[in-house]
Amino acid sequence: MADFSLSGRVALVTGGNGGMGLGYVDALASAGADVAVFDIAPSPSQELLDVKEKYSKIGAQIAYYIADVSSQDSLQTAFSSVEADFERLNICVCNAGINKVADFLDMPWNAHRRLFEINVLGVYHTAQMAASLMIKSKATNPSIILIGSIAGRNSVKSSNHSAYSGTKGAVLGILPAVAKELGPHGIRVNAISPGYVRTPMTTPYPDLLDSWKKETMLGRVGNPGDMVGACIFLASDASKYITAHDLVVDGGKTMW
Ligand SMILES: NC(=O)c1ccc[n+]([C@@H]2O[C@H](COP(=O)([O-])OP(=O)(O)OC[C@H]3O[C@@H](n4cnc5c(N)ncnc54)[C@H](O)[C@@H]3O)[C@@H](O)[C@H]2O)c1
């Protein structure tokens, strides 16, 4: 279906070196986009290099930029490089994030601050710089996707991470206000809120991955591939009349 094609578009994925971000990079390239990847890792992972190699054969570019989304200077430098290399930006997936499992009574101040720097300031200012480049480059059909979480609205029965939940609640709070301001520029802003997904973020908790299965209607934990349909839908013209929406992809967990 033509509306799902991203041919000729330039996308950016933060935290695209692994986990769900890598899945978004792969999917955006398969839909026809060139993809810029921002990640804090000093070099691209073998998995990202494999994806890059796969799409280079069909002429799609995947470019890696070292960028720390919690640093204004680092983000600005990386955005300048994207502008120089691609001259425009149509899609931005603000995905980079970290978690911290800690009881409310024990949550350390500095770890809490770090969560907010990456998960809130990083998402907000990535979206801000992306929108500026979209407007400046007169990009067609621009779309920004913020990555929230079901933890932004609900507590997680079997693990304690109230500070992380606060950061994801902030992302979902930012969503309608930013969508309102960017609507007149023709930029749509939506969120994806994943449920429980098997990634490097969650593999340190095999007992939880096992127990989480029982909390979903579909009887299994998600994988990064389960998220990509939502990403392509929100990035593409298939969702051209949707903005300020949080698309929950959780195997039915939060409706149970
Ligand atoms: N895994 C889950 O169950 C789950 C559920 C809901 C939401 N999420 C959210 O989805 C997003 C991706 O999660 P994931 O599970 O793939 O995580 P992950 O830890 O597997 O991958 C995160 C990526 O972000 C990068 N990153 C970390 N800090 C960064 C920074 N300061 N600047 C740039 N890049 C940085 C990491 O290097 C890594 O490549 C996060 O925002 C997370 O909060 C995850």
Automatic annotation (TrEMBL):
<keyword id="KW-0521">NADP</keyword>
<dbReference type="Pfam" id="PF13561">
    <property type="entry name" value="adh_short_C2"/>
</dbReference>
<dbReference type="GO" id="GO:0050664">
    <property type="term" value="F:oxidoreductase activity, acting on NAD(P)H, oxygen as acceptor"/>
</dbReference>
<dbReference type="InterPro" id="IPR020904">
    <property type="entry name" value="Sc_DH/Rdtase_CS"/>
</dbReference>
<comment type="similarity">
    <text>Belongs to the short-chain dehydrogenases/reductases (SDR) family.</text>
</comment>
<dbReference type="GO" id="GO:0016616">
    <property type="term" value="F:oxidoreductase activity, acting on the CH-OH group of donors, NAD or NADP as acceptor"/>
</dbReference>
<dbReference type="InterPro" id="IPR002347">
    <property type="entry name" value="SDR_fam"/>
</dbReference>
<keyword id="KW-0560">Oxidoreductase</keyword>
<dbReference type="InterPro" id="IPR036291">
    <property type="entry name" value="NAD(P)-bd_dom_sf"/>
</dbReference>
<protein>
    <submittedName>
        <fullName>Uncharacterized protein</fullName>
    </submittedName>
</protein>
